[in-house]
Amino acid sequence: MCNSPNCGWIFPLQVVCISPLFRYFIMRRLSPIFAFAFVLSVVTLPLWGADGSAGSSGRDRSPAGPVVSAVAGVTGIAISPLLGTGAYGAYTYFSTAEEDRANLPWFAQISFWLPALGLVGAAAAKDTAGAALPPGWKKPLDVIDTLENKVTGLVAAGAVVPFSMSVLSKTILGGGEGMALNPEVISTGSLATIHLAAIDWSWLLNILTVPFGVAIYAIVWMASHAINGLILLSPWGAIDAGLKAAKTALFGLVTLSATIDPWIGAILSLVVIVISALIAGWSFRLTVFSWIFCWDFFTRRNRRFSVGMHRTSVFAGVGLPGVPQRTYGQLVHGEGGKNTFVYKSWLVMAEKTVPFPDGSGLAVGRGAFFSIVTDGEEEILVLPPRYRTHEAELASMYGLKGGVEPIGLNKAWSWLKEAMGLDANLLLPSRKSLL
Which domains does the chain have, with CATH numbers? Predict the structure, then answer.
């Protein structure tokens, strides 16, 4: 029977909270198949879409056609920024006449989209190999993957999405797809055609379309990026591959449906947008968690960190009542030894305070990459990586009577050393009592 929610982080030597048959058959036998399908979809779907003809019969020629196509495009890029930007660039490249390709934006040049798709394939290969590796072996690569998703997400939000919205504005004002990049006339119904080549009114429409596109992108990207936060927490490489495959499948579904019929793609995109908006709070908390995790990991902040005397920045766990899981806040050491958890919703709302459980039944679980505060059944707090090697200091300062005990990979290592008699001094008191 597992006493910690982090028991799934250890090697197969440790008893886990799932069926051995399930672990062997699903994790070991079927995970390579799922991973291979993931790699195949990453490599083939963008190129298949890019190779499609610009004059596809499924393309909507109605006035609303460019709008629904733009919404589907922004949604697809938000789901996977690097894959989406690379695929969008490849599609733009192959849809443009050869003599005009030199004038395409940077993300539509082969010098960008080809290496971008190559990096996506490399990440897929990493997840494929990780499905067969012991837990934790590829976790540093997951951190790099999360950082890449953040950087490309910001680049897409600042460059690709505004460009696509600008093209949409020019298409609307130009009255047709063929005038998307160079509008010369505007048809005004009863008036004669007015030549306005010297005036580009698209900037006025951009004031509405660009913020609209960026808002859609931000909501969907945050929900998609939450998957990277889950991967940082996931105990098995096969779970990582499954999460990535689900995200890539959603990207492929949005892209292919928009290619077949823009209205179908827009409806599917609308569903994705609505769901992303409904889970925005959960996505935001995981996004903040992944930001701080990556920052602490890459800057090795634990080497220049000390536990604060009064306030300690932590994340709420599932066992802290009255607070959404993964909420970023501070553990406050009050008078009389009573601790409280203080946080702000969305980091900017009014400050809220909830009581913290008594420390007599709590302990700090030291993991391989980050640690937790646990009551033996549930995690009360999740500590950022900066607290690695500072667990004893934290337990002493906040009166956590259970002290420090290994969990996850560290617990597996302690078990192995105990079984082989390598270092008896590292045995847990609870395990000594069993001898």
Answer: 23-294 (no CATH), 300-432 (2.30.29)
